[in-house]
Design a protein that fits this description.
GO terms for molecular function: peptidoglycan L,D-transpeptidase activity; transferase activity. It comes from Micromonospora viridifaciens. The chain is of the alpha+beta class. It contains five helices and eleven strands. A five-stranded mixed sheet has the order 5-4-3-11-6, sandwiched between helices. A four-stranded mixed sheet has the order 7-8-9-10, with helices on one face.
Length: 286
Amino acid sequence: MKHLRLTARAVGLAAVVLVGVGACALDPQGDGSGAVAPVPVGVTEAASGASAPSTPDQPAEPAQTSRTTTPTPNDTGTTAATTTLTASGASCPQGEHQRAVEQYLNKLGGFGKLTVDGKQSAADCAAIKKFQRRYGISPAAGRAGPTTRDVARRLAATDVRRCRAGSALTFCVDLTRQTVWAMRGGKVVMPPTVTRTGMAGYATPTGTYRVGWKNKKEWSNPYKVWLPYWQQFNGGIGFHETTTYLHNKPIGSHGCVNLLHQDAVQLWKLGKVGTRVVVFGHRAGT
């Protein structure tokens, strides 16, 4: 009887560990490197999707109106008057982070020349809209709000030299800035873009790995969702297109590296089985 109780306890423990594994998709064969999906610490969450259940993002950056004097809520819970059209003829509302966004976008380049004066103009409006569309920020109304400022800041602060890429193709993941890029022979072959990695209790592990397998449409057993453009690199963890709004920062993945559609596709086309993956840094709150 004692032996039976011990056996039952061992089976129960194994079941708990399996259910608790913080991975997007579990591979019963392993990844060939001996790596296993990390066990989550501190948080237990229902397995309902590849990412945590979708919740409302920061209040939407307000759309253009002809004129307004009514204070509107921002993402801090306070209120601030919304500026709309300017004397220079801009067709976008002006956000509270106008000057910072102007500076970051000029540093990044590729979105048009912005005048760093903290005032919305027609050129600024067009550049900010282009940036928002590129990085999936909704609504892409040209307003320099908190999400736009945060994404631009992270991209502008990304230093590709921090990734120990070597000469072969390498996928780099900066957990601190929540950015991803690809390098080969010391040169960037895919510029930094935004990502969302593991949430609290499911932190994406740092280290150097290899892509173990690829699948354009991988099924996640624990979370019962499809993971588009899947590239596994550590146990049940891999790159894939996000299944929720990427810029909903309070949530995160169960260890995977979430990407926007066009970035997931580009990384998929670049990568192959054996591609080197370097993960470094630390996501705040995990």
